[in-house]
Design a protein that fits this description.
The chain is an alpha/beta fold. It has a single domain, classed as Rossmann fold (3-Layer(aba) Sandwich), CATH 3.40.50.150. 30% of the residues lie in helices and 21% in strands. It is built from 8 helices and 7 strands. It has a 7-stranded mixed sheet, sandwiched between helices. Strand 1, helix 4 and strand 2 form a beta-alpha-beta unit. Helix 1 packs parallel to helix 5. The relative contact order is 0.13.
Length: 273
C-alpha cells in the first residue's frame, strides 16, 4: 500500500493493528521496540524506568522523552496524545501530583487495557485513559494546561485536525512539549515513504517547515523545533515546543452539550418561524 492511496480509515487500521500487536508483545514481558538506540525506553533515564511497571517500559515506542521538556508543575492537567502503554502518562502523573491530572488518549483497545493495568500496578489515582482519535480529542475546550505526545503526530491521518484540536483543548497560556520524527525540508513525501512505513513513524512524518506552519496556523506561538538525533537519513527526532497566547479568544466547542438542554429555533423557540 503506498502513501498516496491510503485513506483516513486505512491509516487508522494500519496503525491500530501495528500497535495492538506491540501491546500484546509488551504484555507478555517482551520489548515491543525493534530499534532501541533511536526508539523506545532507552530514551528515558534509568531512574524514570525504575519508577514504572515493566510492561509500561517494554511498550514504549516513542522517539524521545516529552515529560523531560514539558516542564510540568504540581496541580496541572496534562494530556498525552497516543498514550500507548502509559509510560508518559504515569511519569506526568508523578510530576503534577495528587492535585493535578494526567490524561492519556489512544485508539487501540489493547494499548488502553495495558495502560490501565500499568496504572493500577503503579498505584496511580490521578490518571484517566480515554479512547479516541487525536484528530477529535474527547475533552472540552480549554481544559488542559499541557499537551504532550511521543512520536505520534506523524501517525495521524489528518495532521491539520490534530493541530486544531491541540489548540482547542489548551487553556490560554498553555503549552505543548512534543517529541516527533520530522523530515529535513528538502525531503519530499515520496522520499520519506521510501525510508520507512507509516506505522513505523517515517512515511507520515512532516518536514520541519510543515510542522511549524501547522502550529502557526492554529495560533500557537513561541514555536521551537530542536533536533535531537538522526533516525534515518534525512529524518530526525525533534523536540517541539509552543505556547497558546494568554490573550487567545476561546474557540467554539461544538462537542459541548447545549446548556439549556434543547436546540433553539431561529426565533428563539423550539421551532422555526
Amino acid at each position: 500500500m503506498t502513501l498516496e492511496i491510503m485513506t483516513t480509515e486505512s491509516i487508522h487500521e494500519t496503525v491500530r493493528d501495528h500497535y495492538a500487536a506491540a501491546a500484546l508483545v509488551a504484555a507478555q514481558g517482551d520489548c515491543a521496540c525493534s530499534n532501541p538506540e533511536t526508539i523506545g525506553s532507552q530514551l528515558y533515564s534509568a531512574l524514570e524506568r525504575d519508577e514504572l511497571p515493566d510492561a509500561a517500559v517494554l511498550a514504549s515506542l516513542g522517539c524521545g522523552n516529552p515529560t523531560a521538556v514539558a516542564d510540568l508543575h504540581p496541580g496541572e492537567r496534562v494530556l498525552d496524545l497516543g498514550s500507548g502503554g502509559g509510560i508518559d502518562v504515569l511519569l506526568s502523573a508523578r510530576r503534577v501530583g495528587p492535585t493535578g491530572r494526567a490524561f492519556g488518549l489512544d485508539m487501540t483497545d489493547e494499548m488502553l487495557a495495558l495502560a490501565q493495568r500499568n496504572a493500577a500496578e503503579a498505584g496511580a489515582t490521578n490518571v484517566e485513559f480515554l479512547k479516541g482519535h487525536i484528530e477529535a480529542i474527547p475533552l472540552p475546550a480549554a481544559s488542559v494546561d499541557v499537551v504532550i505526545s511521543n512520536c505520534v503526530v506523524n501517525l495521524a491521518a489528518d495532521k491539520t485536525a490534530v493541530f486544531r484540536e491541540i489548540a482547542r483543548v489548551l487553556r490560554p497560556g498553555g503549552r505543548i512539549g512534543i517529541t516527533d520524527i520530522v523530515a529535513e525540508d528538502g525531503l519530499s513525501p515520496a522520499q520519506r515513504a521510501e525510508r520507512g512505513s507509516f506505522a513505523g513513524c517515517i512515511a507520515g512524518a512532516l518536514s520541519m517547515t510543515e510542522f511549524r506552519i501547522g502550529l502557526e496556523s492554529v495560533g500557537l506561538a513561541n514555536i521551537r523545533l530542536t533536533p535531537t538525533h538522526t533516525v534515518v537519513e534525512g529524518m530526525v527526532s525533534a523536540i517541539i515546543q509552543a505556547t497558546k497566547p494568554v490573550g487567545s479568544l476561546p474557540l467554539i466547542d461544538l462537542s459541548a452539550p447545549d446548556p439549556a438542554g434543547t436546540q433553539l429555533g431561529c426565533c428563539g423557540g423550539d421551532g422555526c418561524c
